[in-house]
């Protein structure tokens, strides 16, 4: 009896009775039988993204440093910033230097410098002429006539109370006095022992703005006063 060319049910098609790849083994009907795991490459490791910088009360370390340094009047030491932000001093120092380099590379109009043992924002030297022009010509807020009168009374009668200033001027000077205090030209100087009223005097900034070394250099008032000033003073 001749052998049939058609494979029978017991014939082996692939030599081992199974066909398919080394990894996925399939039966004769094409269904998956098992996965050997042999010959298949291991999956490539997934690169982990660098962890984000932990926030400092809702802000990044760089943002926190910028916010603090924006309001300081003098350089702040690295250790002080580290204590406030509760971060290692080395980390704060590195962040400060990174910010300084970033501002320089970006050509910003301000600079973050380490001076006198601390860090502070400064305008860049290339912009000095523009800043000077702005301060000299653009933002010289002039005092009103009422403010000048009040300042003159304080300068020549200090220490003086607001009530006394109002008596000399003939009008209330409360609002004007607050403006002069806010400008740094006038400051409190204790209280009157009798009336307990707050007394005011001029500040060193007042002398600086007028180019005076002391109050003794104030010009004499006599040439500018009316002839009947003594009578007017007695009537008050």
From TrEMBL:
GO biological process: cell division; chromosome separation
Keyword Cell division: yes
Taxonomy, superkingdom: Bacteria
Pfam family, one: SMC_ScpB
Region described as Disordered: 1-55
The keyword Cell division appears for this protein: yes
Coiled-coil zones: none
Keywords noted in UniProt: Cell cycle, Cell division, Chromosome partition, Cytoplasm
InterPro entries: ScpB_csome_segregation, WH-like_DNA-bd_sf, WH_DNA-bd_sf
SUPFAM superfamilies to which the protein is assigned, alphabetical: Winged helix' DNA-binding domain
Biased amino acid composition, Low complexity: 8-24
Name the UniProt record assigns to this protein: Segregation and condensation protein B
